[in-house]
Specification:
This protein has 572 residues and is mostly helical. The protein is built from 26 helices and two strands. Strand 1 and strand 2 form a beta hairpin.
Length: 572
């Protein structure tokens, strides 16, 4: 159950095994663990059967059974397949004994209330329930039966219509399957699309009800049913929380503050359920949960979310970065610096925390000196990390301090080994191209060529392209670049390395084909149109002649050619 905690079928099998051993305390403990978290209809029916069979000898059995039915209908009574539970509930009330006229009237009223609630629901057996209800009212009092049925007829017709629309909308949905991590298969994508289509249908209020509670309950039930099978998909969790949050804001605007507060608490419960269940290691939902609690001014809860993440994830770098941003927003720069200090001391964090801390100081406190000190601290810890050095150089070049930037270039190029220095040389070349003169530019080119003497040999033209290119603009066409074996950058922010084999030869000046979806496309520039000769006619057998260098000849007939081959003998 730790692997598949949302599979109702597995919970039912587990409880059945405990029930065979008559471990009733264990059975009830399992029901408490799974019922509210797993709204599986078969599991809830099994729960009602268990209560009916094991509590029958108790003096307050009927009271307990009534509460069990009401509990089940409150949770899964809106399911289109829950009609049997409604019917069983009515029959259970009918089977009860009523001593005296007062008790009999109470019994009739209880049956009527259940019927009237049931015929308003879009259930698969709503038509049978309506017929049973009509018969019941006719048997009680024919005079008032017509009036009561007319009052409920409109709601019944509406439920009947929605039930048919529901059947058409949900046809093909997979239910009850164990939740597994995303497989990205075609069948999985189709199922996700169908579930989202069904949820969108519920959001459109097919019941045409003005009751916000009913609409919210139906939509959230659809989300909960989807999450039983697709609980490893964070987008479904987030969309459910977002719908609930927007619904709470909507009713708050209408003045219903009590319901709004209750629904906002449900949003937090939903996030907590997601981040403590199948997606306990998913950073996206944890961050969304923290932002939601921040919007409700619950700073303490936000700190707990981030601290728990830092202590549990394998790489806490991104957690520290988002934690610093939250601390700055909620409590100021001092709190953010405290988080940055913890990130520096954590051996699992990477260079990203230094970049985030330096830029936070630069943009928040406007302090260039503090930002540079943080970058220098990071450089001492990551002296050979090319990505970090490039971030440092980019920040420094934006300060318009050319001399300091050149000094940093010289420092890192002196300390870096040859295999990691190519991107720094390319960045140095780009820097001189922007702020230096032609002599300094050519000097850097020469130094790079000397460093990579063997790699740059016979690559003079490619190096010249590096001098004149700008972002994704190149001074040659794609065919010309392909001819000189020049590698075009997929990302203009990444410096090309001559040591890396060519992977993409498309000229970025040419518009890419849209809608390919990552599928390889042929180079249409090398294609020629197919133009067959319009007057071409195949020669007849008598006029067929084959041409060769020594002249032409008429080929022999088929049977004459076949006679020249050696005859095979079967030894079977």
């Amino acid at each position: 159950m730790e692997t598949y905690p949302t599979c109702g079928r597995f919970w039912k099998l587990y409880i059945e095994e405990e029930l065979k051993c008559k471990n009733f305390e264990r059975v009830e403990s399992l029901f408490q663990r799974c019922l509210l978290k797993v709204l599986n209809l078969d599991l809830w029916k099994f729960y009602l059967t268990y209560v009916k069979e094991t509590k029958r000898g108790l003096p307050n059995f009927r009271e307990k059974m009534m509460k069990a039915y009401e509990f089940a209908l409150d949770k899964v009574g809106i399911d289109v397949a829950s009609g049997n539970i409604w019917s069983d509930y009515v029959n259970f009330i009918k089977d009860g004994e009523a001593a005296g006229s007062y008790a009999e009237n109470q019994k009739i009223m209880a049956i009527r209330r259940v019927y009237q609630r049931a015929v308003m629901m879009p259930l698969s057996n709503v038509e049978q329930l309506w017929r049973d209800y009509s018969t019941f009212e006719q048997n009680v009092n024919e005079i008032i039966a017509k009036k009561l049925l007319e009052e409920r007829s409109r709601d019944y017709q509406n439920a009947r219509r929605v039930a048919k629309d529901y059947e058409a909308t949900t046809r093909g949905l997979t239910r009850g399957a164990p939740a597994v991590p995303p497989q990205n298969s075609a069948e999985e994508k189709q199922q996700i699309e169908m579930w989202k289509k069904y949820i969108a249908w519920e959001k459109n209020n097919p019941m045409r009800s003005d009751d916000n509670n009913l609409m919210k309950k139906r939509v959230m039930y659809a989300y909960e049913q989807a999450l039983l099978t697709w609980g490893h998909h964070p987008d479904i969790w987030y969309e459910a929380a977002l719908f609930l949050e927007r619904s709470a804001n909507l009713v708050h605007e209408k003045g219903d503050t009590q319901n709004a507060q209750h629904w906002k608490d449900e949003v937090a419960s939903l996030y907590e359920k997601a981040t403590t269940g199948l997606l306990r290691n998913n950073l996206l939902l944890h961050f969304a949960f923290a932002d939601y609690e921040e919007s409700r001014m619950k700073t303490k809860e936000c700190h707990e979310i981030y601290k728990n993440l830092v202590s549990t994830v394998a790489d806490p770098t991104l957690v520290y970065v988002q934690y610093m941003k939250f601390a700055r927003r909620a409590e100021g720069i001092s709190s953010a610096r405290s988080v940055f200090k913890k990130a520096r001391e954590d051996k699992k964090s990477t260079y990203h925390v230094y970049v985030a801390g330096a830029l936070m100081e630069y943009y928040t406190t406007k302090s260039k000196d503090i930002a540079l000190k943080i970058f220098e601290l990071g450089l001492k810890k990551f002296p050979s990390n090319t990505c970090y050095i490039l971030k440092y150089l980019t920040h420094l070049s934006h300060q318009n301090d050319d001399n300091t930037t050149r000094v940093l270039f010289e420092r890192v190029l002196t300390s870096l080994d040859k295999d990691h220095s190519w991107p720094i040389w390319s960045e140095f070349l780009s820097f001189e191209s922007n702020v230096g003169d032609l002599a300094s530019l050519m000097k850097v080119e020469k130094r790079r060529s000397n460093t990579f003497e063997s790699e740059c040999k016979m690559k003079e033209t490619s190096l010249l392209v590096d001098r004149y290119k700008y972002l994704d603009l190149y001074p040659c066409t794609s065919q010309e670049l392909r001819a000189m074996d020049y590698q075009v950058e997929l990302d203009a922010s990444i410096n090309r390395n001559l040591l890396t084999p060519t992977q993409n030869n498309a000229n970025s000046r040419e518009q890419p084909v849209k809608g390919t979806g990552g599928v390889a496309r042929p180079d249409f520039a090398h294609m020629v149109p197919y133009a067959p000769l319009p007057s071409f006619q195949y020669p007849s057998k008598s006029n067929l002649r084959i041409s060769c260098s020594s002249g032409s000849f008429r080929p022999p007939l088929q049977h004459a050619t076949s006679s020249l081959f050696p005859r095979t003998v079967c030894s079977c």
